[in-house]
Amino acid sequence: MERVAIDFIGPLPRTKQGNKYIMVIGDYFTKWTEAYPVEKIDAKTTAKELIDNFITRFGIPLLIHTDQGKNFESELFKEICIILGIEKTRTSIARPQSDGMI
């Protein structure tokens, strides 16, 4: 999985485990999609889920495409991308054509 898109679904009704959102990661080439339940959509949770659940299973992607959410534009997320050698792209404001496949 070289090029992936990441986004969130929610808020949804809270589960018994306390989750309100679903983090969705999809591969552009294979269209393989993973979904991870999360409690919140802050930078720390986003980074942790990406590393613990996606990268450990599929390896480090070459490129991640996201929207301009605070969690994706945070210094933490940017630094993780730099350290892991991931190119990060994002959608343009008010231009839905630039949205990813997710």
From TrEMBL:
Residue stretches making up the Integrase catalytic domain: 1-102
Cited InterPro entries: Integrase_cat-core (IPR001584), Retrovirus_Pol_polyprotein (IPR050951), RNaseH-like_sf (IPR012337), RNaseH_sf (IPR036397)
PROSITE patterns per record: INTEGRASE
Name of this chain's protein: Integrase catalytic domain-containing protein
Pfam families: rve
